[in-house]
Amino acid sequence: MHLIFDVNETLLDTRALDPLFQRWFGSEATRPEWFLTLQESWMTANLIGRFDPFSSLARSALRQLGAKHDVAISADDEQALVDAILSMPAHGDVQSALSTLRNRGHTLTALTNSALKAAHRQLEHVGLEGHFDAILSVESVERYKPAPEPYRHAARHWGVDTRELVMIAAHGWDLIGANAAGMRTGFIARPGRAMDPALAGVPDWRDDDLSRLLERIVAG
């Protein structure tokens, strides 16, 4: 089975960034606010047909948050955020779940909005790089998920139809995009993440434990 994984929040725990936001803004609650601003930036980039690197958008989102909260953000602060993104830990259920899939012969692909070089560093840092048969970035098509091009890129990489792929992510927008491109979808309910339970057809599977979710996907 071809299993496609999002990286940030799905495999890697973005809560590791909380101390930085606590230091800058006095509240860890500003970290999800920053991530929402970042999502808005790449979706805007998709809509206007412009592609800016993920790290540039991450820095811009931090500056926007600083302006919103009247907090001065320095170039050193921006670099500290980028460095922290590259060294986020994996969620506790990831290593075992991916190892089991590899041992059973499934094909594993990472498909991320991060830059390709950054994705390799992130996954190498947590010892996950070797679990993947391919690590793919939206850089190759210069369109961010949930646009259809990244999902089609994953299918082209393996020479298969998107209907043969299952996308696993912690973000509803990612899975809605994957579904629209023809993939089946699995939602991993990371802390603070939810999908509309009344949404028809998305996801095909959902769980709050990655190993259990993957067992259900493979069985299905």
TrEMBL record:
NCBIfam families: HAD-SF-IA-v2 (TIGR01493), HAD_type_II (TIGR01428). It comes from Salinicola socius. The keyword Ribosomal protein does not apply. Belongs to the HAD-like hydrolase superfamily. S-2-haloalkanoic acid dehalogenase family. Catalyzes the hydrolytic dehalogenation of small (S)-2-haloalkanoic acids to yield the corresponding (R)-2-hydroxyalkanoic acids. It catalyses: an (S)-2-haloacid + H2O = a (2R)-2-hydroxycarboxylate + a halide anion + H(+). Keywords: Hydrolase. One of its GO terms (molecular function) is (S)-2-haloacid dehalogenase activity. Its EC number is 3.8.1.2. It comes from the Bacteria. InterPro entries: 2-HAD, HAD-like_sf, HAD-SF_hydro_IA, HAD_sf, PGP-like_dom2, S-2-haloacid_dehalogenase. This is (S)-2-haloacid dehalogenase.
